[in-house]
Structures are given as C-alpha cells and as structure tokens.
Queue: 4 jobs
Job 1
Amino acid sequence: MITKNATILSVLAVSATIAATSYQNQVGFISSAPKQIAVVGAAGEDVVFKDAEGNAVLTVKAPEAVMWAPANEEASLVDFSELTTPGTYYAFVGDDSIGHPINISDNALEGVTKASLKFFYFQRSSTELTEEYAGKYARPMGHPDTAVMYHESTGKLDLTGTFNGSKGWYDAGDYGKYVVNSGITTYTLLQLYQQNKAYFDTLNLNIPESNNDVPDILDEIRWNIEWMLTMQDEDGGVFHKLTTKQFAGMVLPDKANKQRYAIGKSTPATWDFVGVTALAADIYKRFDPEFAEKCAVAAGKARWWATLNPHEFFSQPRDVGTGTYTDGNAVDERMWGAAELYRITGQPSALEDLHIFTLIQNRRKLQSWQTVYALAAFTMATNPQIFEQEDVDSAKMLIFTLADSYIEDLNNGFGLAIGNGDFYWGSNSVVANKGMILIHAYILSDDKKYLNAAQGILDYLLGRNPLDISYLTGWGVNQVMNPHHRPSEGDTVVAPVPGMLVGGPNSTADDCAKKFIDADAPAKSYYDNSCSYATNEVAINWNAPFAYLAGSLQAIYATGKKYEVGSDTPAKYDVTAVPAAKTALKTRAAGDRLIFKDNSVRLERTLRDGTKAYFDLRGKAIR
C-alpha cells in the first residue's frame, strides 16, 4: 500500500532531479572572455564544472535567483570565467548534468562570424551559387536584373527603357533589393572591417573571390555596393528599391521570374547611398583606387540631389505590394551622409549639411534602418582628428547615454541588457544593435564592462534565453529549423541555409505566431515556423549587427587589440564640382504649397492619387 506521505516524498524526489535548468551560449566561449550561464532552480547550490573525463575543475555557488521580466522567470547568473583552458566541459548540480556541453577555445566565435558573413554570399542576386562555395545549398542563378524597367514612381519619362541593376543581396526572406535597408547593412559591415582590419584581412569565407588580394569581407560587401551604384539615376538621385510588383511565392530565385522594376526615388535612400559610398571610397582605395573614386563621385552627386530635393519621401504605389521602407524624416540620414562625406572630403558644404541639425537628446536612439543618428555618432566619435570637438562630444554623448542605460539593466538573473520593450518585430536585431553600441562604448573608453555586456548579448542570441534556442541557423544544440526564407523553403535540403539570424520573439506578432504570444513573458513569444514572418524571417540588416558583434568580439580577443580611435587617415577626394539637377519626379498632382496649419507654417504636398501629406519646414512628416 502506498501512503500519502510516500507519494509526496516521491514527487519531491522527482522534482529535485529536474529542478535545475541551465540556459547558455550553445556555440562556445572564448578562452579569455567572460563566461556565464543562467541557472534556474539552483540558488545557493554548488554548480560543479567537469571536463570531458568527468573530473571536477571548478565549483561555483549559484547566487540568489533574480527575476528577468521578459522571461517572467527567476535565475541565478553563474560566472565561470575562471575556466580558461580550451576543451569541452559540463555543468552539474548534484549528480545531474544541466544545460549543454560547454565549449571553450581561443577561436570559439570564428565559426559563427564566418557563417553570419557567408549568409550574404547565399543572398547574392544575379549569380549561380556553385557547389564549390555553397555546398548542398547550390542553386541556379536567379534574377540577372540586366533589363530592369522603370516604374512610373521613379519619375522617368520613358517607361519603356531598361537598365542593368544586377548584383546586390536579396533583402530578407523575399527577393527584393532595397537601398534604404542596404544602407545600414553595408555600413555596419564596412565598420566591422574598418575597426578590425588585422583580423579580417586574412579571414577566408570560401567565396568565388577568395583567391584574390582583397579581404573576403570586402569582396562580399562590394557585391552589394556595385548594385547600389546601378540604382543612381542620371540626376544623382537614387531609386528606392528594385523588386517585382508583388512578392514571389516560396520558390527558389530562378523560379521567381516576373518583371522587375526600379520603384520610387527618395531622399532617405539617397542620403543612405551617400553614407555608404563615401565610406567605401575610403576603404577600397587601398585595393582598387578606380572603384574608390567611382564611389566618391557617386556620393558627391547624390549629396547634391538630396540637398536640392530634401522632401522626396517614398510612397508605395497602388500597384506595388513589396516592402516599403518608408521614412518620412531624412534628418538622420542627412547627418550620417554628411558626416561620411565630410570625413573623406573636408568639404565645408558637407560640414554645413551636418551642422543644420544636432544630436540633441531625443535623437539619442538605437540604430535601425529608419533611424541612423547613431551611425553619424559612430563616425564622429571615432574620428576626433577630423571633426570639431563639439561634434565629437555630442556623438560620444549619444553612445554612452545608450550604453550606460544598457549597463543599468544588467541586474537580472539572465545578466542581459534587454527589456520588455525590446520584443517587437526583429527583436534579435534590436539586441544585436545594442551590442554594436556597447562595442563602440568599449572602443571609446577601454572599459571592459561594455565589452562584457556585449558578450552577454551574443550569449542570448546563441542560447542564453528562456526558449533554450540558438537563433542563428546551423549553430547550437537547439537550432532554428524553419525560417521564413524563400531559398530555404524552395530547395530540397531539410536544414535551412546556415548563418541566418531570425527575427526572434515578437510580442505583437500578427501572423501564425500570434497564438504563441506570452503577454507575461515577451521573450517567449516566438514560433519556429516558416509561416511566421513576424518572428522567423531573416534580413540582411539583422545579420549585419550579429556579424559585427560576433566578429568584433572574436577579433578583439584574437588580436589582443581594439580599434585605436583617431588612427585612420581617410583618403581625400574633391567632389565639389559634381553637377546635380532638381528632381524630375512626377509624383505630385497639384504640387507643393506652404500653408498655415496647427499654428505653424507647413508644407502641403498633394500626391498623384489626390491624397495630401504634410511636413514641417525641415522635412519631417506630420501625422
């Protein structure tokens, strides 16, 4: 006969054996870097780390459990940084192993760095991916884009003409190519190289250009810049995007063969173009002076168009249903583009463009495709030898205001600078971009607290999260398997293309992931299914900050050095004589006029479809 007390004791015994759970980076830890895991259900108990032979090598008492609100879960942050000898280890509470194998090596992050950069090769448009470089993910060429037509929204008078818009990267899970999103993406990767040249000069990504004398990361970036250059119109303005009129189905690129168009021409896209091509002109001069000069001239021409046409904001045409990347405020793009152009020209007019606005408090925002004040700040703060002290100080203020706010958020059981408000569309890119802010704070201050917090961000993305999942395809014990990514869905390979960072938990998901929303734990609001674009799509602007974060950490520890602020001597170009033209866009029906509205002078714009839009005199859209 089983007594009630015996049953209770049995339940307690079972509970004791399964109580402790560990969440950790599932890929690996750099030998000399900080190492932490979040342990649930073991507060006050010894966590014993054993090597592959079962020998105890370190014992750490789990501290008091602390709540992490996004997970609605208490955990003890266990630090085992003392463990520095390369090898595979296991964590135990009592006789029970918790978590996953712990891998420690000097190059623990090199694999994910390479994979997250190789993702861009897999996203190449206008080329076949051969087995030599793509392995089982080889595929035929899709979208040659040698005969791209002009949509009427470009303002071109002859809509029967075509142009060569080849190369570039597919933007996300779809096959569109978007200048605005390419802007922040390409800049982030260029910065990764600029700040870690010694490491990336020799890093082999196994791409078709790997045997030339140019670093592979720059060869890959150039594939996209060459496409961006094709998007510049004769008058200097830049077309907003290159897509079909509607999204393709979940097929491989060569099966998505509808006519492609250049669509729209916008001020934000043009300033983004200025920022990218100006920085490229500096970086590529060492390897290809002719290409670098082409980039500089293009940047100067685009700057003139953008200053003459400050309020050309993209409006999605009625017959188009692809991504919009609409932005009704080009102040931040102008500041970033002007900063990059001034850095390579010393041109007073570029400095004037920059000084029209300042990095005031409400502009101290985390970077994203639609908000790029931080990109201007990164450039100014790390180039004090070029910019005025007031500019440098305001840039540093932006960076440290954000970085210090993240440090203040670290007091939780998962040890993460991530809050409830971060879990919206593309939350993993929000997290990765925080890592980029923290790396810059470390570069500027040499304070390891920022570098350590950035490590925690990476650990979250690779498994130190309440879902116990690595959000980078192909890496980790529990991997994402069903991203919203057309090539991965359209091929016959079970596993998705590796090295892709998915969007992550989204507490406002409006697709098939809606049923997985956890109002009390937004960090668990995720669905690994290709039907969920809101939580499981991939995008170039999400992969770029992940690559920056992982690559910077690996490079800093591998070389023992960080970027030396003020050490660069940028190439100098003269683009003052570049001609420009007033826009020829035909998007307005009745034109623009100044009116008095809401007690202020406003710009009223009447669009072709008869709708009206309103802007202040600085070009900011008014709702």
Job 2
Amino acid sequence: MPLILQRLLLPHLATGTPPASASTAARHLHPAWVVVLISTWLATACNVPLWREVAQLPGQGSLRGWGFAIAFALIVAAGNAALLALLAWRWTLKPAAAVLVVMAAFGAYFMLAYGVAIDASMLTNVLQTDVKEAGDLLNWRMLATVLALAVPPLWWLLRRPVLRLGALRHVAHNGLLLAGALAVITVCLLLVFQDFASTMRNHTKLRYLINPLNSVYALANIATKPLRMDTSTLIPVGRDAQLGASYAGQAKPPLLVLVLGETGRSGNFGINGYERNTTPLLSARTDLVSARNAWSCGTSTAASVPCMFSHLGRTGYEARAANFESLIDVLHHAGLAVLWVDNQSGCKGVCDRIGEVVTTKDQVPALCPGGECLDRVMLQDLDTRIAALPAEQRQRGTVVVLHQIGSHGPAYYKRSAPDSKKFGPECTSTSLQECDRQQVVNGYDNSVVETDFFLDSVLKWLSTHDRQAKTAMVYVADHGESLGENNLYLHGLPYSIAPDVQKHVPWITWLSPAMQARTQVATGCLQHDLAERRITHDNYFHSVLGLMDVKTGAYNPALDMYAGCRHAAAVTTKATG
C-alpha cells in the first residue's frame, strides 16, 4: 500500500509517458475516463453507508423510489466527477484521485462501523485526537475495509498510463468534463427535485454521508475558517472582573473543583434513575444536587469544551466572528488561583493562558495500565500542585479543573479498574459491532461506576480541606454517547441530527455547609429547583462565576442556574431574622 501511494504521488508516474505511436497512444487512458471511472467507484463501492440509508427511506420499493435512488446515485457520481475535473491536470490527476480514494475508504469504514456522519466538527475532533485515542480505533475490520475499497482503484491507477494532452486541449477537455458533470446534476435534480428536496429536508443525515464529498466539504470548511472569522485575535473577556463582598475579611478562602466529564450519558447514571445502580457511592449521599435535564453545547469534546467555557452560549459561540477569552481567563483576571489537570486530550485552547498539568505523563504504574491512566491519577500530588500556585492568589481562592478520560470510547473496558467492573461480560473489542450490544453497555456502565468512585474520591479529598477552605464541586460531562441505538455508536454527529443520548449529560453539584453559607445557596433548594429544570452548557460560565462571587460585565445572572436559590436563601434569612 505505501509503495502504491508513493508511486501514484510521484508526478512522472502520475502522467505516464508520452505516446510514441498511434498504437501506444491507444493503450493510454484519456484523463476523462480516469475521472469517470474513479467517480463511479467512489459513488458506488465507497458509498455503501449512504445507499443503505437511502434503501430505508419510505417508498424505496416502488418504481418512483428506484428512480429517485438512480438519480441520486448519478448526482453523487457527477459531483465527484466535477471535483476531479477541477484537479484533472497533468501533474495532479492521479495524486488527487488517490487521495480521494483513500479518504473515501476511511470515511466508509467509520460510517459503516459506528454509524457516524462526517462534518467539520467531526473532522476537527479527529484532528485533535491524540495517539492513544486513535490507537483504540485501530482493528482488523478497519484494515480489511480500507484495503478492499482503496487497493483495487489504486492498483488500477498505478497500472494504467494516462494520455498527455496539450495545454489548451487539456483546458478544453476539463471544461467540457466539468460542464458535463454539472449538466448531469442539473438534469437529475430537475427530474426528481420534489422528492430530492423533501428527502434532504426530512432526512438531513444523508447529506453528511455523501462520500468523500462530505470530507472534502468539511476540510474546506475548516481551511477557510480564517476567512470567515478572525482566528488571529483573542478578544478579552472579563478584564473588569473583581471579587465580591464574600471575600471581605474571609477566614477561609473558597476551593472549587470543576470536574469536566467525558462522554457521560445522563440516563446511565444510577443517581438519575437508571435501572442499574452505576453510582452507588453518589446515590448513598443526601447532600448532592443532580440536574437530570441538562444538555450539552456540542456532541464532541472539540465542540463542547470551548463552548461551555465561553460566555457566548451555543448559538453565539457557533456564530462568533473571533475567538474570546474563556471562563478560566476571567477567574484568573479576578485574582484567583486556577489549576487545570488533564487526563484527556487537552483543554482545547480553554486554558492556554494558564497552562495545564497532563497526568498521562506521570505514568503511575498502578493507575496507568497500558499507558492509559484512570482518572484516579489526577488526585495524585494534587495538594503539591495547588501549593505551587501563587500564594497571594490561593489566599483569595482556588479553582481546580479535573478533565477526565471518563467513558471515552470505543475502548470502554479500559476506563474502569477491576474493582469497578460490576457488570459483565464486557465488550473488549474496539470494533463495537462485533459485540453483543449488552456487552457494549456493560463496558460503558462499568466506566460510569469508575466515575462514581472518582467523584466520591474528589469529595473525600475536599473534606480533608474543610479546615482550610470552603469547598464545593461541580461535575458536568462535555457530551453524551450512542451505544448502538439505531446502529449508532460513539458521538460527534452534527448537533441538529444527533440523538438525545449524545446531548443529554449528567450535571452534579456539591456544596459544603460552609460554601452554602458563603454563597447563600442552599442544597435543599437546589435539589428541588434543578431536579427536572432544563439547563444547558450555556449556564456553565455564569453559574461558576456566581458560585465564586466574581463580579464582571460578562456575568449574566439570568443564566446562573444557582441564582434562583441564592435569592430564595436571602429572602428566607431576612424573613427569619
């Protein structure tokens, strides 16, 4: 495979040799045939996920349904041909065709194996995946699929020399090829326009399955982002931040731990009513607040984390014209000590101005089997790391962010220690479709048991600091996960078409009695107010600022999920006084 690609990408081999005679020329393939045949392969063999979805559309068994499917296939093939016509030059045709074939082969595998759709957010998530996470996705099925879809056309491209055309003739032929492809698209659309428009409107996912045009469009979207927004400028937020009245003459500073969960499904947390008791330690407590109707900002870490730490909210964040400083920056501007500890693939730019501690480099043997660390490792040496923060800032207050590996798939079985494996048997393959769905769920649920242990450990660690600080913890996951429902796995579908399980996340708050007194927010009030109230990641930025009593123009009390109980507590205190 590497040899084939190497030879294809060498320009002199990509174009073949000039024909020496009429018989030699006859053996050389016209560039237009390369475009047509490769486009046909891409539209058929590499689009099995698309045609599988089309086959399930209502009315596909009828003559009209067959007509729509054939027209749709011609549109896809012509779209590929139009793209290749733009690249069908002497030095670029074979390399471009080879890249599209390999791209389509990988895209087809992931869409077949996990039911994913490909858009800019998905590709951004892929580009930010670290080596260990990528390794979890490698398996023999991927190799077999990619080889089956890529090797035949690559071998064919390698073996067939392409006819060289003069410059003007090449321009004319490419122009005609492009015009022909666009004409095919236009005619087919006119023939099935009503059905096509209705299908694209009601079955939005189909547009993200058109392979490899979906990946090409997504890459173009990412590449042109600097043209649509100013990525070189970071707009300040909360530079006016000041500490509120609760800091005046304080005997003990606040200590808030923000646990940033990974791939958490609210419905699989026992504390939220799941039929399995996946959270025995948390469920045994009476001093926790679990918001059961919480929703994420995105369906991937790359989308959700920057969004939830932003003051803009999901709609504003997606429409932003430039990047802004984050919640972490505002807390730092206020003069608080801030520490980010990461057991994942980084903070996605959120903590760039303060830095991060990456625990995966610690490699504690007992907590990092196979080089991937359990979240428990983040509590190792945490006191030492906090002590290294500036003393003046720590005297005001400290915010610690613990970014989990959580339930990151597809290797769910790696996310729990042996003592957390309550449910079995687990799926021990990263090719989830090989396993019975219950085995997949078992592996995922055991990762939730591990998160339960970790959060309980965080609460125990906070209790050891009660004499020195007023403590609190807020846990919320970045996004959810699909576990085989409707043949969908993992996460990252476009938000508009993603199932609720990829967006419905757990959100748990714990306030020590001292922190309740400091903030005038009573746990009992929150348990009543937040149990079923709909909240989203839009609330996160403002709620954290409210808990830490940080005053800034960026703070919106209407989005502070704790503000309602703060006012209620104040009224109660005044009435009883």
Job 3
Amino acid sequence: MVRRLLTSVALGLALTSPAWAQEARSRVEIEALDATGPGRLLLFAERAGAPGAEAPQAVSADPFFKKDNFVAAREIPGLSAGARTGVDGDDLAYPGSMADLAPGDYWVQAVLDRDHNYAYRGGPDGGDLISPVTRISLPGTGDTPILRLSETVPEYGLWESARGPIMSAEDRAIVDARIKPFEFISPALSAFQGRPVTMRGLVVTPEAYDGGDERYPVVYFTHGFTAGMTSLSDSAVGILTATHAGRLPPMIWVLLDQSGPFGTHEFADSVNNGPWETALTRELIPDLESRYRVDGGPASRFLMGHSSGGWAMLWLQVNYPATFGGAWISAPDITDFTDFEGVDITQPDARVISEMGRMEAVLGDYGGQASSFEAVFSPRGDNGLPMPLYDRLTGEVDPAVARHWRENWDVSQLVRRQWPAQGRDLDDKLHVWVGAADQFGLDRSVRHLQTAVEAVGGRADFTYLAGKGHFDLYADGAERQALRRVMAWQMWRRARPDSPLNDPGPLPAAPAH
C-alpha cells in the first residue's frame, strides 16, 4: 500500500509503530452539513500541548513553514448533506500512515479543497470548506471523533479582509486613482487552451501621472511561488507609499500575476502551461504600453522578481535581451540542473529524496513546487500531464525527463550557448542578489550561473548577502523592502542618468526604548 512506502522521518510528530496500533482506532469521521461538490479532502494534525491550552486558529501543513505537521488526503466525488466519510490509516498521508502517529493529543482540522489549489496556496482559500479546530486523542478509545465541515472560507476582493476594508475611504480613493487592475484576454493562450485565457495584474502610476504628458520608465514585476493577486495588491500599495515618500523613483510598475493551476508558469512557453512568454512579449506588453505613457524603448523597460519570479525574469532577459533594458532579480529558482536540491539530476541513477515533494504529493496531485517545475520544464506525458522528474516515493529520476530539462531549460547552459552571440545586448543587464544562507541552496545555483557567465566573458553583477536567507533577503534593519529600493534606484539611474533624484538610503534605525 502507498502509505507503507512513506517512510517515517524524524519530525515532531514522532511516528511509531506500536503493537497496539490498530488502523480502525486511528480514524476521524468528517461530516458535511450541506451538500458539497467534489474536491480533495485534507485532514491536518499537530501535537497539542497541555490540557486547557488554547486552540490554534488553524491547523495546516506546507513544505515551507508547517513541514512538521501531519496531513492525510483523499479525493471525494462530493458529500450529501449530513453524509460522513472517514479518514484513517489507509489514506495517503505525510509523513507516514495515520495509524503510526504516536499516541497522544492532537489539534486536528479538516479542509475540503474544492479548487485543488491548496498545494499552491499553502492554505484554504475562498470557497473551500473547513471544520473547527478540535482537540482529539489518537488512537481513540471511545466514539470516533467527528469533524463537521461547517464553514465556507469567504472570498475577498483586493484590499479587503475578514475585518472589512484594510484602509480608510480617503486612502482607498488614492489607491483607486493610482493602482489599476487589468485583465487581458490573450489570443495565443486562448488558442492553446481552446477557451478564453485571461492575463491579470496591476499597473501602478506615479502621483504626477494624471497632471501632464511626461513619460516614465516601466518595471515589469512578478511574484514568487504561493502568491497571486492578493500579494501583488500588497506590493502595489507598498510601491505607491514608498514612491509618495520619495523612497522609490517615479516609475510605472506593472505587477504580473503568474499563478495558474499547475503553480507558477514562469512566463515561459511550455508544452504544458502554454505560450506565456509569447503572450507577454508580443501581446500584453504592446497593449499596456499603447495605453500608458511609458518611455517605450528597451533602455527603460526593466524586469524584477524574487524566487520563482526571479527565475521568470531571468528567463525573459536572457531570451529577449534586446527587448528589456535589464533584470534585477533575487534568489531565482534553480538555474543549473547539476544542483537540483543538491542532486545532479544529469547523472545516471540520480535520486531526489525530497520531503517537500513527498508532502506535496499528499496535498495535491498538482500545484506544488515540484509539480510546478515539471509543468514548465517537462515534456507532456501520454496521459496529457507533465512528466514527473522523479518518483515521489523512491526518488528515482527519469533520465529522459532530466535530459529534457538540461537541454531546454537549464539557464546556465542557455547562457553558454547564447551569450557569445548576444553579448552586446546582454552585457551589464543581469543584476542578481541571493542570500549566502538561502534555505533552498539557491546561492549555489547562482554561483553556477555566475560561472557560466564568466566562462563566456559576459558582464553581470552577482551579490551574495552574508547571513541572509530566502525570506529575509530584502530587509535591512527597519526597512522591510530595502533591496527593492536599491534595485529601483539602479534602474532609475540607467533610465535617467542626468536626473537630480537620488536614492535616499536606508531608513534610520528605530529609537531604542
């Protein structure tokens, strides 16, 4: 059985296989108060503290921040009102079978992931059904615990939350004037999918935009994994606020949503996700630049992104060097497949032993980080889905898929092939930052990229920030987005070398109390 192949790991849940453990006793019933549609039923558990301890607001599991928790999963066709289904030791689970959980008290919560994007979002979102967080003992000695799917997660518009609007009416009027959501139906993507496909994002304009005919440099930014329009709206407000305060130069920012069913599509033309780079470069950018007063030339058309967003913008800059004036990126996803999570996947008998991949296989059949990579990099299988790079249980790498990745999507290899002929358009356009303590080892990947650039005599900037990881890279003291400020002013100097405006520098430290 699948669950028996999921080997236990040294996590806080302390999986065991005691002699008294019977799968029928490690069981939770989940009941629908109202009829549900189909979806992926998820059961989460985390160890509870002493009796009387306050319940957490939610129980979850994800490979980044809640990687020590338990999750079991099952696809269901739907439940009628009042119907129940059980989750027990026979269900797919991480880090091991529910029957092997160490005895004790647990906080548990059930989620019906109706749109199958929990693996991407790392939590339930609008329309999903959830149960209250409940304390139970496992294995049970009395009646089987029942969790009721009694709450539907609400859907919120931009700049709204459970508490209502996140800003005053006065501030909202400013936001509505300066931040414009857009939706663009792409002919290329629509033809690929056989249905209308919409590209989404936000355009942020500087305060003086409506008062004259001045043109501006433009920055195309995209987010990292798990993010989407909500995170872009937060970024947009931050950019607007910082520009008003003079901490960012007056530029037009286009914030691009790259989330999709398989994860992030990286604005790359792939056989699984479709022609996203074509749609961006040949359709969306010309459309936006015909409607907004941008400078309109590559010398002041810039790219920015972090993590998956960093890889996307690196890919665009290397492949369209004459279209963009430079890419300012941080901690890009893996750029050299001789170091994929520490494994050279190009070697015979390569194995990727990935706890992230194992957990994601439980959270969802698609949408996790590993399957997101495969949707971009892999050929399409006979079943119409992206071919897996490796078996999630055994770690065995498919050499044909690995070869396809290396030959078509390895940015270090791409640099070696293309930079010599395109050096005039590529030199001095790549600006890469990464934390020297990146939690995903992406500093190693960036060093491989730097080696490739140097091997062909290219010119690019690489900065390794000591002590910085993947998630704190942008912060400097009291300034949470210090690196964004540095990047933006470098762009400004490139676009407006004679401007009297200058980077105001770091925020002063907060006074000690």
Job 4
Amino acid sequence: MAAPKKGRRQGAQGRPGRSLVFILIALVALTGGMFLSGHTTPRLGIDLAGGTSITLEAKNEPGQKNAINPTNMNTAVDIINNRVNGLGVSEAEVQTQGDRNIIVNIPKGTDQKQAREQVGTTAQLYFRPVITQASGEPTPDPSASSSSGTDKEKDTDKKDKASDKDEATDKATSPTATPTSQGRAVSDALKADPTPSASDKAKDDKKKDETPSSTPSADPSTAKLQEQFAKLDCTDKKARAEAGKGAKPSDTTIACGKSPDGKTWDKFIVGPAEINGKDVDKAQATINQNSAAWVVNMDFTKGGSKKFAKVTSKLSQQQPPQNQFAIVLDGEVVSAPSVNTTLSANAEISGSFTQDSAKDLANILSYGALPLTFHEQSVTTVSPALGGEQLHAGLIAGAIGLALVIIYLVVYYRGLSLIAIASLLVSAALTYTIMTLLGPTIKFALNLPAVCGAIVAIGITADSFIVFFERIRDEVREGRTLRPAVERAWPRARRTILVSDFVSFLAAAVLFVVTVGKVQGFAFTLGLTTLLDVVVVFFFTKPLMTLMARKKFFANGHKWSGLDPKRLGAKPPLRRARRATAPTAGPVDPKEA
C-alpha cells in the first residue's frame, strides 16, 4: 500500500512543467489578444486622461409641482449612472450638485456623442394608437387653391353657373384638394373611438340622441389639433422637438417619426397612451432573422402583458392606419407597427436602427425613464494635467515600495528572492494585459484609486511568497531535505494563502458593491489582483519552487540559497530510534541483585 502513495507523491512533484507551460500559454494568448485588439495600453479614467464634464439642470414640466426633490434627483443619478457605466467600472462619475443640477464626468476614450445621448434622454415611453398618418411636410392651405381658382375665373371670358359647378367639382378631385379630404379623415378618426370594437355598431338608442355639440368636429380642441397637424413640418428639427410638447399621456396629440425607409419623416395624430415604459420588464437589441435589420425586443411585466393583449386585440380589428400603435419615445415616434393579431408576451420595435442605436434604446428601456426632464446647462473639457502629476507621484511611490520589497527579499531570502521576483513579474504582466483588454470589453478605466489598488496588491502577492518560503524553512529546520520539505510545506502554506486572499477578495467585493465612482475602481483592481495572486502562486510559484528544489544550489543548502541548514539552525536529520532487544535471562540471583 505504500508504493501507490509514493507514486502519487512523485507524480505530483514530477510534472511542475505542465503548470509553467499553462501560465506561459495564458500570457502569450493575453498579450496576443492585446495587440490584435489594437489596445496596447489600459484605458484611462477622466482624472488621468481628461474627458468631458456635462452639467444637467432639472426642469419642471407643465403640470408638475415639487417634482424636483432629493428623491427624484437621486433616482435620476442612479439611472444615468447605470446607463453610462453599464457594468459600473467605466469610471464615468455621476453626482448631484445643489438642488437641481447633476454633474456627469465622461472619460476620454468613451464615445462622447453616444454617452451624451444616454445622459440626456429622458426615455418617457408610451404606446399610443395611431389615428392618422401623413407625410411629414406641412399641408398647403386650401384657401390658396380657392384664390388661384378665382383668378382663373376672372381671366375666363365665358362663365356661368354650370361651369362654376364643374370647376368646383374638378377642384374637389384635384391634388390641391387632398389636404381638405385629409382633414375630413382626421376629423372622422377623432370622432370615432381610435380602437372601436365590433360591438360598438350595435349600440342602443342612446347613441342616436347624442347632441351635435358632443362631436369632436364641434370641439375647439379637436379643430386646433387638426390645424396643428396640418401646419406641422416634421422635416424641421425645431418643429419636431415642439410637436406634442406638454401633452399628457391621457391626451390625443401630434408627433413626428421617421418613415420606414429611414430617410424621410412622417407625422401622426396619436390617441391616449394605454401602455407606458414601466410596463416593460426587459429590452434587448437583436437582429431580425427575416429582415436582417436591428430591432429591439421587449418583454412586458405581468400587468403590461394584459394591457398589451387588450390593446392589440382592439387594434387588430381596425383598418390601416388605425390598426397601428405608435411607440413614442420622448415625444418622437420610433416605430409604428401594424397589428394583425392579439399579442401579449412581448413586442418588437423596428425602424432604421443601427447596432449602436438599437443597443442604446434597449439600454434606456431596461434601466427605465428619468423621473425628471433635464437640459444640458454646460459641457466642458477636463484637462488631464492635474491627474497626470498625481499619477507621476503615485508611480514614484509604487516604485519605491516595490524596490523596498525586493531589497527585503534579497537580503532575507537571498536565492529564494529570484523566485519571488519572477512571480511578481508574471503577476504584473497578467494584471497589465487583463486591464488593457478590459478597457474595450467592459469599459474599465484605470484611475488613480485603481492605481492605488494595484500598488496595494504588490504587498498581497509578496505576502503569499513569504508564507510559502517560511513553511519550507520550518520543514528544513526540522531536519528534512529540501524536496520533501517543499511538498510538506505546500499544503500548510496553501491553506493560509487561500484564507488570506479570500478575506482580501471579500473586502474588495463588498467595497465594490456599496460604493460608486472612483472607489469602485480601487475595489475592482484589488479584487482582480487578489484573484491573480492565487493563480500565480498555484501555477507559477509552487511549480517553479519544485523545479528549483532539484538544483544543487538549493538542494545542498548553499549559503546564498536562503535555505542553508546551519544558518536556519536545522536539527540533525530525522532518524528512527532503534529499540535495544533485551537478552533472555533466567532467575535473578538475590546476591547479584
């Protein structure tokens, strides 16, 4: 039974090269990925690289009272922070200033335009039934056609009542009369329920007793809405921004939206909102398999699914365009799909989306709408000069600390310091390449606190080497030779290292969760380097120590190896005590006793 145990121990000692090859392959792969990605330096935070600082001012919308309060401001900060930071490590800083301002600092290297859109978009999402839809250009005034017709009548020598009637008939069917007929269509649409059901046709006699004044055509607000719709020019950016401004979710209003080709604009009259963004549970940008275009898929909450099913059931019974529902985001129609059947679980927003715009919209819908409306008060550029000076000072401090650690290792551990220094270099290379690759992948940005975290990690890594070396020395002091001393010391050192690193990682994780901004950079770097410490000690330091134990310089306890038995005060080699066998004796003579 002793032979298999010995074989397992020799096998564990005899293949340290595999671990070293693994760590080498990992280093080569990470370095290659770094160069292939085109990013050879870590992405820097705003304090080191500079960037853009945006000041947002909260505004009260018509009808809102006391909306600007600490609760809504803090909610807005959280939403903006989630939108811009994504995973929370891109180092964009979002904080309040005063009672109604929010400061957003975006580091250089971030897509500034995209980030500003994420910051400023309120993301008020509503699903509204479409009442009518037309081209985005303003409708010509019908009176212009009438005056033109009058001028022609004056120039005509032969006129009578019959010809006047014919001319009127021609104008009614001419293209210049289209806006008039379009206006009647709008009036009819507003007069009816935007989403009538089949049972509406079988109403009782009370329907017949309605007074003319109750019809929308006699309602001044309806006439005003028709007039606004006719004059609306969606090709004008300012007019698009003003369209439907101040309308409540329960109001019928006008809006602009891009046509399906994404090149021109359409204008809409849309009914009261029946579903809003709070009914959306999750949104994701995907590619439609049929059209190969980017779309945004939305999953509704339980209550939202019921509302959506009810709305689509009504719309599916209507004729175009009243079988469409407009998806209105911040007053603009981003999509107006038609409904042919009842839907409930999810919906798809289609339009002229690119990959970035689809992901932006999905991100906004997932994190929710801002509780307030914000306007950009100022946009300034932040200089990296001050951060550069602080970084320079920090790097000098880190270099001094590293030099002191190396001097201590050389003086106290002598030859063993070579293993420690090699391990530190491997840990530094892994940290650098991973931080560089995390920049383009999760938008990680290296700031001053993150640099501090990396400097602290030097001590954590060196501490692991010291624990291992001291365990080996303890075994040598007990009189064991180096090779068995290394293998006996490793299990004890391994437990200590794992416990120590677990405590450090737990502290970093808690710090990352409960803090925001730059402190998260410190916590993230500390947690990353702690994990790398475990990887380096297990896959590099221990295998390298096993190989070095076979070399005469270390195995024979050279005075510069750091493992000199005399210098360590080692005991003589352990030997088994031999029991002396007592000879068989007869009865003892009392005289001899």
